[in-house]
Design a protein that fits this description.
This protein has 283 residues and is an alpha+beta fold. It contains four helices and eleven strands. A five-stranded mixed β-barrel has the order 1-3-2-4-6. α3 packs antiparallel against α4. The termini are far apart.
């Protein structure tokens, strides 16, 4: 009886083992079949359809694009339109928010191939990508400004193009694609971190664009002077009013009226400093 039981247990164990082996082989075969299709997908990204304005040239896959006029119309991004940067073109996104086959699909979030050049230095994994002087082509970000995202690979390409700078000098640059994590953001270069990042980010958010260090310093000094002036006025007026009230209680009405006027002047000074600072940041 014991031998029969041991034989049955052995048969069950063998059956379970064969089943597990079969499942493993099936999973491997499924992976082999599905893998090419997964790699065929050009990006793991979320995109939205826009109407293209090709006045600057053809809008190809990987090109950086900015909004133009209407929020639903795009054009190739240049250094002049980088503040309106919206994303990179990809005709095969993983998810399309528009659900329409018409228009140009622009990646708003996720990973996709971005058209770049080495005009501003070699692009390595982790570098920020921004607009370049070549319409629709990105480059390595080395200064404060708007960026489209972060490079995930080191850029290598044998395709070259000759360009002419503002001084009339000719340069040869390499152009190609680099895998990029899309994420529109204001970039603060490492060499410009004289201010705490939260101050720089707050100024950028208020202005809706990257703000220079000089503008932030001017605003800081202006706000400091405004609040200090208001505080001095309020303190001196309150102290004077208390002294006058102690010497001449019958003049309390006039003293309070003068105190109220000083408080109003202090508030006007603070509001004026805030308004002037806002204009400096945004204009």
């Amino acid at each position: 009886m014991l031998k029969l039981y041991s034989k049955q247990v052995g048969m069950k164990t063998t059956s379970v083992l064969l089943k597990n082996v079969g499942l493993a082989l099936f999973s491997f075969a499924l992976f082999v079949v599905i893998s090419p299709f997964a790699h065929a997908q050009s990006s793991s990204s979320i995109a939205q359809s826009f109407t293209a304005d090709s006045a600057q040239g053809d809008i190809v896959n990987g090109a950086l694009v900015s909004t133009k006029g209407s929020q639903n119309t795009i054009e190739l991004t240049t250094v002049d339109t980088v503040n309106r940067l919206v994303g990179a073109v990809d005709d095969k996104p993983l998810v399309s928010l528009s659900g329409s086959s018409k228009g140009v699909e622009v990646v708003l979030s996720g990973t996709t191939n971005v058209l770049v050049s080495d005009i501003n230095g070699t692009i390595k994994s982790g570098d920020k990508i921004t607009a370049s002087p070549i319409a629709g082509v990105g480059m390595k970000a080395t200064a404060n400004g708007q960026v489209v995202g972060t490079a995930q690979d080191t850029f290598t390409s044998d395709t070259t193009r000759s360009i002419t700078d503002r001084d009339g000098k000719s340069h040869t640059v390499h152009i190609g694609y680099v895998r990029t994590q899309i994420g529109i953001a204001a970039y603060q270069a490492p060499g410009s971190d004289l201010l705490p990042p939260f101050i720089q980010n707050m100024a950028n958010n208020i202005a809706g664009r990257p703000v220079s260090l000089l503008r932030i310093l001017i605003c800081s000094v202006l706000l400091l002077l405004g609040f200090v002036t208001a505080a001095v006025l309020a303190y001196s007026s309150t102290r004077s009013a208390m002294t006058s009230l102690g010497r001449n209680p019958l003049a309390s009405h006039a003293i309070r009226q003068g105190l109220y006027q000083t408080i109003v002047v202090s508030l006007v000074v603070v509001v004026a400093a805030l308004l002037a600072s806002y204009l400096i940041l945004t204009v």
